[in-house]
Design goal:
By secondary structure, this protein is mainly α. The protein is about 70% helix and about 0% strand. The longest helix has about 35 residues.
Length: about 170
């Protein structure tokens, strides 16, 4: 091989290696950003607000909330099954409005029971911790639900009502 061919090959190899390193770095950065957007980062998340709590209090609260999730799992499963049944009925050739409404109502009631169980567990735990930790937990109850927050979690949704249906 001539020295010119070797130089061209070396330059191409260098460019390719830089491209690959940048691609891998970008993929790692994107994965990290996606992982950071998890449930613990919701604006009103009790877990996010607990990050300033002492480690032992934070662990105890997570244990209590995990137990509450396990306890409410039957209601969450019931709600999921009811929503699937409503969707199946809605997609049917001849949808049954009454059946859809009953399934959606069943799903809402199940979700509300699950939410009540989670809130009850959070309040029960909050009553056992220091006033400072209790204030952090109370902050999660003051914030609007995630559906009322902007996509980036900056505040209440101020885009106004949706446009009227055509």
């Amino acid at each position: 091989m001539s020295p010119r061919t070797l130089k061209i090959g070396l330059a191409l190899s260098l460019v390719l290696n830089i491209f690959l390193v940048m691609a891998v770095g970008g993929a790692i950065l994107m994965r990290h950003k996606l992982m950071d957007n998890g449930r613990g980062e919701r604006p009103n998340s009790i877990i996010r607000l607990s990050k300033d709590m002492p480690p032992e209090s934070r662990k105890a609260m997570r244990r209590v909330l995990r137990e509450a999730v396990v306890a409410t799992m039957p209601d969450l499963k019931t709600a999921h099954v009811a929503r699937i049944a409503a969707a199946d009925s809605l997609a049917a050739a001849t949808p049954d409005r009454a059946l859809i409404d009953r399934n959606l109502q069943k799903a809402r009631e199940s979700e509300m029971r699950a939410r009540a169980g989670m809130e009850t567990a959070a309040v029960s735990y909050a009553l056992t911790v220091s006033p400072e930790d209790r204030a952090l937990i109370a902050e999660s109850f003051r914030r609007p639900p995630p559906s009322a927050m902007r996509r980036r979690g900056k505040g209440p949704d101020d885009r106004g009502p949706p446009p009227p249906a055509p």
